[in-house]
């Protein structure tokens, strides 16, 4: 009888495969992040749109940035030579936006590049004014222990005042950090992902919430 039980136990182990070792560390997974903003100014009231001077995002505790181990580009390379001179795998995200400048709406494109210890947003537009600006995002550890990293993007004057005497307002934005790029990583992966803390700060100091979420891929 004991021999039969032993045989059945061995067959069960073969069918189930090896059990995870006690205390085994879950494998790290890449994360996909998406950001969405849409303001709805009343017709003829576009001049009341807030003029953005910074964007800030907080990622959950346990999430880290992996830019230090990935191909990276620099703001100087993008500004002086052009984005095509960045290493191919340094591009980690993209998006589109819509601004209001010079009494007109302007479509914008956004390309996100790994900057080593930073995240670079290359913003471009052609009409009604030419815009070709790199926004340098810095990564820090916030004091609030609920969050693992804080990403801060102070807008340069060339984006706030693209035309002397005139300001630019951000009306809408849809951007994504590619999960396949792996710029954000975590060992913890909730089935429904996370809702991120993200906001815009305008030149008066007022805040506007951005819809943002994070999921494992």
Model description:
The protein is mainly beta and 217 residues long. It has one domain. The protein contains three helices and 14 strands. Strands 1, 2, 3, 4, 5, 6, 7, 8, 9, 10, 11, 12, 13 and 14 form a 14-stranded antiparallel sheet that branches. The chain is globular and about 90 Å long.
Percent of residues in beta strands? over 45%
Helix and strand composition category: mainly beta
Note poorly predicted spans: 13-20
What does the main sheet amount to?
14 strands, antiparallel
Radius of gyration: 23 Å
Count of helical regions: 3
Order of helices and strands: HEEEHEEEEEHEEEEEE
- Round the mean pLDDT to the nearest integer and report it: 89
Query: Helix share of residues?
Result: 10-25%
**In total, how many beta strands?**
14
Q: Categorize the overall geometry.
A: globular
* First and last CA, distance: 48 Å
Number of domains: 1
Short description:
It contains 3 helices and 14 strands.
């Amino acid at each position: 009888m004991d021999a039969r039980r032993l045989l059945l136990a061995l067959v069960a182990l073969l069918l189930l495969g090896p059990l995870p070792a006690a205390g085994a560390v879950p494998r790290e997974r890449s994360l996909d992040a998406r950001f969405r903003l849409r303001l709805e100014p009343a017709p003829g009231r576009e001049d009341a749109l807030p003029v953005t001077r910074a964007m800030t995002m907080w990622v959950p505790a346990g999430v880290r940035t992996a830019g230090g181990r990935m191909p990276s580009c620099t703001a100087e390379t993008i500004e002086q030579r052009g984005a095509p001179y960045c290493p191919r795998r340094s591009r980690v995200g993209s998006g589109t936006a819509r601004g209001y400048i010079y009494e007109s709406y302007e479509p914008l494109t956004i390309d996100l590049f790994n900057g080593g210890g930073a995240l670079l947003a290359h913003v471009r537009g052609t009409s009604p004014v030419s815009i070709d600006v790199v926004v340098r995002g810095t990564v820090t550890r916030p004091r609030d222990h609920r969050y693992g990293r804080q990403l801060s993007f102070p807008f340069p004057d060339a984006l706030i005042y693209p035309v002397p005497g005139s300001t630019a307002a951000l009306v809408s934005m849809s951007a994504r950090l590619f999960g396949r790029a792996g710029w954000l990583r975590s060992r913890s992966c909730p089935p429904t992902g996370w809702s991120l803390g993200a906001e815009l700060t305008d030149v008066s100091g007022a805040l506007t919430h951005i819809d943002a979420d994070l999921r494992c891929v």
